[in-house]
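B., you asked whether I could sanity-check this one before it goes into the benchmark set. Here's the sequence:
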Amino acid sequence: MTAPKKSAAGKTAPKNRLAALSPARKAAFDVLMAVARGHSHSDDLLRGKAVDSLSAPDRHLATALALGVLRWQIRLDHQLQALLSRPQGKLEPEVLIALRLGAFQILHMDRIPARAAIDESVELAKQAGHRFASGMVNAVLRKLSKAPNVNYPEESAVELALAQAHPAWMVERWAFTYGIETARALCRHGQSQPVLMIRIQDPEVANELAAVGIQLQPGKLLTAARTVVSGDVTASAAFREGRLRPQDEGSQLIAELACAGSGNLNQSAKSIVDACAAPGNKTLILAERNPQARILACESSSQRFEPLRRRLAPLGDRVECRLTDATTLAEDASFDLALADVSCSGTGTLGRNPEIRHRLRPEDLARQAERQRALLLAALRTARPSGRVVYSTCSLEPEENEQVVAAAIAQTPNVRQISLAPSIQALLARAILTLSGAEHLCRCLTAEGALRLLPGAFATDGFFVCLLQRDP
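And here's what the prediction gave me:
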């Protein structure tokens, strides 16, 4: 046994010196703290410099820990609360996150020994300045590691919400709107890691990626979409050179539907406005499919505008990037096509953005809908006679989808909703959609002809897409 180290004066070094922490757990802790304080979103933080500088194994573990805790936080807190000596007491945020990290590893990560999870959670509490709480963290996690597994029922919406760690109010809404079976599928998809999708216009890029060990599978809907099965596409030359883009297949589909218009293969847009353009993925598709078009890309957030401008710079003067709120646009009746892919609650993206379930409140939906109506009305105002407007969200909530569209139509003369069925057939005719994809999408159309993609149905996030047209 190695003797304790002694100082130059011959005294034994103190035993309370802080131990080294796993870089992955420390990074996950920092991400969760930043999310809890509302400083940023987990998706942005996990692609930031602090996480990117980790080794590949540590980066993967940090991501799994942070997203896992956010996905299962509601149930983790329920299980931890039962083991606290003062269940109603308020814990400091750092202590609570240390407990959640330990609990997630004990309950959901079989390959990590419980002892390691407990020790590191205790150390996280100490290094966060809560040495006196570290004993409680140790005791609670030890009890949890020895407790029998709990079988959570999922029969009612309230039971399902706890079992799948979603807010009860959210699951009750889904059960009312879509039925309990669909609500169950939505919750389970929200607990899974989304697949990584990329967009490839040149099929040779797929061969190039295969040559460096990156395995891909075809998308389920679009011929330009690929699922990344294994390998790091961000390390490839194709990614660095912009010959592929990570983008959810449903997100790609929105822009493709906008370009397909009302199904007329000869109806090419010469002028386009993207009312909420950042981060620019859909704008790039609009430019690809309409090479002669003049495009105005609007973004109201100064923080998001500069990355958007840089991303669209290779398109040159074909695209004007404008830092502006689209509701203030003065270009009335100026565009053949307007895309209003509006900010929303994001309930269709809970697998990708799990913290949304902790931040969103029922009363937020009315506030979101007010802003969405204003953006859709502005987009309709900018459309020329016979011009088209595509409205889309990544929300599952009727207040942000059908109700926004109905309100905008009621306020705008000479506007009607058009079924997306001809647009789907046009994309199939151009070999942009796969045959099976087109068949499945037609079954996802609402009675009014809007498209509702539920999360997980095609390995995509959840989206709502509607096509409107101004009469001549």
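One thing to flag: DSSP finds 20 helices and twelve strands in the chain. Otherwise nothing jumped out at me.
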